[in-house]
Design brief:
6-stranded antiparallel barrel; 3 domains; 6-stranded mixed sheet; 361 residues; alpha+beta; Elongation Factor Tu (Ef-tu), domain 3; Alpha-Beta Plaits; 22% helix; Gyrase A, domain 2; globular
């Protein structure tokens, strides 16, 4: 079991630690609902240093990224980030990721912790002919997500960079918390605004301490992975291993917007044919109309009990006070406003299909 550089700090703060993606991670400190509301209303800080970071450099860097990623990275200017996915050869998704253009010929790929090894092998396979320079920085770098509507105001004293001026999905390499060169990225997985800070493991304790100190007057709190999950689900953001995986097409998952057929990439011809033919199932959002909590793998049926699909992610929404979830259903049943039924233990609970995000802010 790996540990992040801040593992002892989390334990000292009373965090409940659980195994996650091969790491010992804080799942909660004071409870998911309280932590969730902290991020929605003010500011919280997550240690997400388990995420993977690959540096792709050199004159062939863009060629490799264009080959393995579904989105069009040629549109990226230095200082911009882009959400994308790595299609596999059989119609599914190796991983979803964020691509940062750090310099003219330098890109940072941020991947999911559970997929670091798999993603590295996948990129290496296609790089054998392309010859970009690849470095796996995952074990050397830490990542803090400072999220919430008060994040910029609370953190401004820590940087000479005007934090409020960084647009969404842009980033600056600048000073933060006494460290001269960190990536300050206006990205996140919560839907409440904020930043993600990339720094070296040796620097992260200083950054963490100063973040909590700077945010004290704003009610900042450390936030665990359980609230990260409820926050992202309220936004309808996909979680790899639940809503997308090696068997789900990006088109089925509603990721057509990051699947650009203006260029060739892994399996692009087959995916283009799928787009033209139309998918047979779709990832949809749903809200329960009665009490209950939908969970992963619960069946989704019609009124007659015919199985339409399965729940991929579900929870009791702390913001909305009702059960919400994502799941795949057959395309003919995927219309907004359709009623479906979630099989929760022995109860058939009605739900309405809605267009995420569930939480509108």
């Amino acid at each position: 079991m790996k540990e992040t550089a801040l593992a002892q700090t989390h334990m000292a703060l009373g965090a409940k630690m659980v195994p996650f993606a091969g790491y010992n991670m804080p799942v909660s400190y004071e409870g998911v609902n309280a932590e969730h509301q902290t991020v929605r209303e003010s500011v919280g800080v997550f240690d997400v240093s388990h995420m993977g970071e690959f540096l792709i450099e050199g004159p062939n860097a863009l060629e490799l990224i264009q080959k393995v990623c579904s989105n069009d990275a040629s549109k990226l200017e230095v200082g911009r980030a882009q959400y994308s996915c790595l299609p596999n050869e059989t119609g599914g998704i190796v991983d979803d990721l964020i691509v940062y253009r750090v310099k003219e010929e330098t890109y940072l790929l941020v991947v999911n912790a559970s997929n670091i090894e798999k993603d590295w092998k996948h990129l290496s396979k296609y790089n054998a002919e392309i010859g970009a320079e690849m470095r796996n920085l995952s074990d050397d770098y830490s990542l803090l997500a400072i999220q919430g509507p008060k994040a910029a105001e609370a953190m401004q004293s820590l940087s000479s960079v005007d934090l409020k001026s960084i647009p969404f999905y842009h980033f600056v390499v600048g000073d933060f918390a006494g460290i001269p060169h960190v990536i300050i990225s206006a990205t996140g997985y919560t839907g409440s605004g904020g930043f993600e800070i990339y720094c070296k493991n040796a620097e992260v304790q200083q950054v963490w301490d100063r973040v909590l100190e700077a945010g004290k007057d704003y009610g900042i709190k450390p936030i665990g992975l359980a609230a990260r999950d409820t926050l992202r689900l309220e936004m309808g953001y996909c979680l790899y291993g639940n809503d997308i995986d090696d068997t789900t097409s990006p088109l089925e998952a509603g990721l057509g917007w990051v699947t650009k057929f203006s260029k060739e990439f892994v399996n692009s011809k087959a995916l283009q044919q799928q787009k033209e033919a139309g998918v047979t199932r779709k990832l949809v959002g749903f809200e329960l109309l009665e009490k209950g909590i939908p969970r992963k793998d619960y069946e989704i049926t019609d009124a007659d009990g015919r199985v339409l699909g399965r729940v991929t992610s579900g929870t009791m929404s702390p913001s909305l006070g009702k059960g919400i979830g994502l799941g795949y259903v057959s395309t003919d049943q995927a219309g907004i406003g359709n009623t479906v039924y979630i099989q929760i233990r022995k109860n058939s609970v009605p739900a309405i299909i809605v267009k995420p995000p569930f939480y509108k802010g």
